[in-house]
Amino acid sequence: MKFARRQFLQSIFASWLGWQFGAQYGDGQFDHLAWAADRYALNLARPTKRKLALLIGINQYNAKNTWLPLNGCVTDVDLQRELLIHRFGFNPADIVTLIDGEATGAAIAEAFEAHLIAQAKRGDVVVVHFSGHGSRLGGQNTILPVNSTLPKSDSSEAADISIETLSLWLRSIATENVTVIMDAGFHNPGSATVGNYRIRARPSPTQWQANGQDQKLQERLRDKLQQVAIAAMITDQADQLGENKSKNKSKNKNQDLNQPSPKATQKLKLPPIPGIVLYAAQQDQLCADALWQGFSSGIFTYALTQQLWQMTPATSLKIVLANVVSTLEQKAFQPGEIVLEKQIDTHLEGKKSLQKSLPTYLGGNSDLLRRPSNQAGNSMQGADGVVRSVVSSHKSGEIWLAGLPIAAIGNYGVGSVLAATAIPTANPIQIIGKDKQADLVQVKSLSGLSARVELLDSNKKLQAGQLLQEEIRALPRSQKLTIAIDAQLNKIERIDATSAISALPNMSSSLATEQFADCLFGAQADSYGLFTPGLQPIMGTFGTVDESVGAAIRRLQEHLEGLLAIKLLRMTANQGSSSLGLKMTMQAIKGKDTKPTTLVSRTPGRYQKGNSSSIDSISKPLAVGDRLACHLKNLTDDTLYVRIFCFDPRAKVLTHSFVSSPYASDSVLAAGSTLVIPQPQAPFNWLVSAPKGLMDVMVVASRSPLTETTDLLEKSLRQATSPTGMLAIPAPLDVAQAVLRDLQVASLPALEAVGISESDDLWQLCVHDWVTLGFSYHVA
């Protein structure tokens, strides 16, 4: 959307008046601004509730060497735009997007003033998103418009926009329902890439100067805010004078309304920043631009928008951000000491309580979330995507699948089935049985986050705007682990690594940052080993200093197979899309305490009788020796079959060793019953153990027996014991493949119900016949 110069100049004046609809704050200052502006704008129409958005994404910077152009920022804009339109009811005409060459400093300023400040009224909803490079100048964090480059000399000015300028723009918006998402970093580690990620931050030597134009813009914005505040003070004096005269007409006859003194003017405070600001990274933290399979995006933006596709009106910001933090830790950079509350605070700035539902997207009113008028407030279900367009016959169309978790969307296969409804239904859609509540579509081709689908029933009609819920997940059986080869290795080392990896089954390689990778092969202290994509060393994978590249790859085969097993198991994660009635509660008894602390509670997102997820306590890292217990409650009328897997910082796959007589029923959960693992009467504990770092726990529950999985585990772990209650699985890849085959067997009735043939090339899994719930904790 472009703005004419006349419209822009008018908007500057209008923004000065726009405080008439400002929200109330405790000290009354914002109320004064609202009263004053109202006196100056009697001719303005009464406001109507609107939702306005400004989305900025810049890939094409003129950057090289220690910073580079980015890949995922325009996708971030698409992710936000589709979410706002189809999940939160924004009018496309009220969303301004500035991408690449459009996003100059002048255009960004124009969009803020003309689109947001001039138009937003009290009670409106405003969303601002920026994806691109950030930096630091003169001790201030900045964001970079497309025309900001490296200064030509140390005395040159950079055309950055400071966060202070951003805060003044936000203070000038006449609503408190503001959300700002900043997917940019302010710290450049001296390299444009870290591991398999590009870094969203330009270098910032201390001698570089701040932008003079930016400082002038700040002065102008402060002047306008102060003028409105002065007008408010005058109006307040007039109101007070009128009250005094009415109370005592004989006194203060000569009292008159005066311009406030300069001293009084200096005491005026600017209004606080409204709403909340969500940061992908702050200060010395890194912000990642990630390559996925088929597309690129900011890790923070994808994790956040995916969680918002799945949210219900009862979902709190604490839950959303906790899940986002978990994704960031798994996929990007893990700080050494992590406390989840501090991590959430890192990504959050503003007045809103974490316990409240997301008010800045919803405008403080959960009814703004799209739902039928006859549905109850908390019955809204999450969505996995939306139908973006249809062909003239309405039998096929293009869909957008940004509601799926990263582990699933990167491996989603042709043949997957989704249910299309005008809006999510109050109850989960069940495709098994005679009654089908929605139109079913099948994926025919995929390109990144977009897919082409066809209706399974030719008598139905597909409509643009229909939301989608996953029904059958098709995953290619020919899964490989992709290993990025660190560009810091020399040419001969890279060639040797490529050759050695090609000789391993189910493995492929690429040069770092050229495509998606599951892990990275490189060197540390002259020793070869494995790293996460964010360049965190994987414990136990480094060899001797005199080892050759080929020998290192062969030595690492077992570790690589373990990583592939973890990848396969994570592909089953379906907390958002499953309706299987299982409640998982994890508790810990810390140190010498006798009472357990609840760490997390989970139920599937589309289980119709409860909320999808709740966090009862965000705890500090657990210590070695703390005791864990997993409470599983079967909320269905069927027997459920359960397995627990854990992934430790060494990329080992572990499972509990409690399945021994008389506790063999620990894998079977009767209808309506609750099972505690380990059982209270068991002569062993589930202990938190070394090594330190991130530990993932995954609970897989199925309506059908996990026969092959159980047989494999019993054979491989027979007679094995562990003082911690958890055993490393000797052949984790075989077990992971067995889990998928067992889930395939459980899904055969669903395939038959919709007339789909079983494929030898795909795992075809009905999301209602199993659920994989998980959470992460840190070992200190």
What does this structure look like?
By secondary structure, this protein is of the alpha+beta class. The chain folds into 4 domains: 5-219 and 272-299, Rossmann fold (3-Layer(aba) Sandwich), CATH 3.40.50.1460; 385-476, Beta Barrel (Thrombin, subunit H), CATH 2.40.10.170; 481-569, Rossmann fold (3-Layer(aba) Sandwich), CATH 3.40.50; 571-779, no CATH class. The protein is 27% helix and 24% strand. The protein is built from 17 helices and 36 strands. The strands form 7 sheets. A 6-stranded mixed β-sheet has the order 2-1-3-7-10-13, with helices on both faces. The two termini are 50 Å apart. Mean pLDDT is 80; it is low at 1-48, 335-345, 351-359, 364-379 and 424-429.
Topology:
Elements: H1 5-17, H2 29-40, E1 51-57, H3 73-86, E2 95-99, H4 105-117, E3 125-131, E4 134-137, E5 140-143, E6 161-162, H5 163-171, E7 177-183, E8 193-194, E9 197-199, H6 212-247, H7 262-266, E10 276-279, E11 288-291, E12 296-298, H8 299-310, H9 317-331, H10 340-347, E13 348-350, H11 359-362, E14 385-390, E15 396-400, H12 406-409, E16 417-421, E17 439-447, E18 450-455, E19 467-476, E20 481-485, H13 491-502, E21 507-511, E22 519-524, E23 527-531, H14 549-555, H15 557-570, E24 582-589, E25 597-602, E26 613-614, E27 627-634, E28 640-647, E29 653-656, E30 668-669, E31 674-677, E32 686-687, E33 693-702, H16 707-717, E34 726-728, H17 732-753, E35 762-766, E36 770-779
Helix pairs in contact: 1-4, 2-6, 3-8, 5-6, 8-9, 9-10, 13-14, 15-17, 16-17
